[in-house]
Amino acid sequence: MKMEASQIEKLEKMQKRYEELHRLLSDPRVARDRNLLEKYSRESGKLEEPLSLWQRYRTLQEEMGKLKEILADEKEEKDIKKLAREEEENLKKDLEGLEQKLAKVLTPQDPYLQRNVIMEIRAGTGGDEAALFAADLYKMYNRFGGKKSWKMENMDLHATPRGGIKEVIFAIEGKDVFETLRFESGVHRVQRVPVTESSGRIHTSTVTVAVLP
């Protein structure tokens, strides 16, 4: 897989725009305009990932060029050439991986997938144990959202006396929220010995999850 000329041209335009945005963000007039400042900051942030990959790609290409010079030099020692060939294979794999990542970030994304979501978690079959399972899922999504730096806000929550959750509705805002969580919708099941079970029997409990963009 090789970078296409159109992809390289697009990245070069991104680089020019990124530099222009940094000049704009350092302009005192922009700093005083909150709307412009937020607009340019968001645009600049979106360009950082592809340009970081592009910089890494160009660096590896330069290293590949140096290795090819070593391999083409008839006077170079055999041991050095052997090491150069091994390094060349590693660089090829790294370059292929970067080409795939660049192709992905340069492909226009469905704006629908970039939406924020409202998530609903409802305890289903299983009584108190289902409510405890719902609480476990709620905590899990909150921890996951925290790692993603998403903003989580409860809209409605009905807890049970034993620390479970009968139903909770909460909003999640952040980068790629719907794209990441869209397949979480559905019925979730767990088989385990409930903390409320004294005889050690395994129970099956269910919880329904809905992800609404």
Characterization of the model:
This protein folds into two domains: 102 residues; 101 residues, Alpha-Beta Plaits (2-Layer Sandwich), CATH 3.30.70. It is α+β, with helices and mostly antiparallel strands. Strands 2-3-1-5-4 form a five-stranded antiparallel sheet. The chain is 55% helix and 20% strand. Helix 1 packs across helix 3 and helix 3 runs antiparallel to helix 4.
What is the number of E strands? Answer: 5
Mass-distribution shape: flat
Our Rg estimate from Cα atoms comes to 26 Å
Largest sheet: 5 strands, antiparallel
Poorly predicted runs of 5 or more residues: none
Share of β-strand residues: 15-25%
For the termini, the CA-CA separation is 35 Å
- What strand line-up does the widest sheet have? 2-3-1-5-4
Treating each run of at least 4 consecutive H or I residues as one helix, how many helices?
6
**Helical fraction:** 55-70%
What is the SS-derived class? Answer: alpha+beta
Family: Belongs to the prokaryotic/mitochondrial release factor family.
Domain Peptide chain release factor: 69-184
Coiled coil: 57-101
InterPro entries: PCRF, Pep_chain_release_fac_I_sf, Prokaryotic/Mito_RF
At a glance:
The protein is α+β, with helices and mostly antiparallel strands and 213 residues long.
